[in-house]
Write a structure and sequence with these properties.
Length: about 110
Amino acid sequence: MNNQKKPGLKMEPEIDSNALTKRALVVQIAKDLDLPQQLVYDVVQMTLDGITDALLDGKHVEFRDFGVFEVTTRKARIGRNPRKPKDVFSIPERQVVKFKPGRRMKQITR
């Protein structure tokens, strides 16, 4: 059987046992709740957009028992090329998103 994508036909996402993709999450939630995939996709996307917007506004995002996302500043530092240790360059200060796991997440990952 030909495995090409046909218009109007929703393909099951490819399963990578090492990653949960947004698509796979949407398909699973839609199946579990018997909801249209487009509706679930819109909700998931709006949730991710809300998290991103909050972080851009300098807020931290807290999900009880899951964890906290926050923006922190990494200090400027000196970097070296591991293949040529004499090559030194400056890495500027920058903003990064940090995740701190919550209580339940810590218990699961022990």
